[in-house]
Write a structure and sequence with these properties.
The chain is built from 3 helices and 6 strands. The chain is α+β, with helices and mostly antiparallel strands. Strands 1, 2, 3, 4, 5 and 6 form a 6-stranded antiparallel β-sheet that branches.
Length: 116
């Protein structure tokens, strides 16, 4: 079996995240797919949207963030097409910690040049 044949564990398509105070999107039309057996890393500059992408996938965006996507799945469960306070997030809350989790970055601790 190739990686392309493996089960899709998590995916988001055409993700856009915006904040009311910003003219530009914080994340603009990002797509990501993770299949069984794959190791995936999001790499980029500080502030490039890596954490927001992970948070959007798990429905953990900050209160002011507004996100949209054309498709989102975790462990075979499809989610609503809009992340906003007015929608019901209970199905996604049940998936967090059981089917998927977010390990937050600790840039100051991990990249401390004085720590060896």
């Amino acid at each position: 079996m190739t990686a392309r044949d493996a089960e899709v564990l998590a995916a988001i398509t055409d993700l856009t995240v915006r904040f009311p105070s910003q003219d530009r999107a914080a994340v603009d039309r990002v797509s990501l797919e993770v299949r069984s057996g794959e190791v995936v890393a999001l790499v980029g500059e500080s502030g490039s949207g890596k954490s927001l992408t992970g948070r959007a996938l798990l429905d953990l965006l900050p209160p002011l963030a507004r996100a949209s996507w054309s498709a989102r799945r975790i462990a075979g469960t499809a989610g609503p097409a809009v992340a906003a306070p007015e929608r019901d997030a209970s199905a996604w809350a049940r998936l967090r910690g059981s089917a998927a989790a977010l390990v937050p970055q600790d840039a100051l601790g991990a990249l401390d040049p004085l720590r060896r």
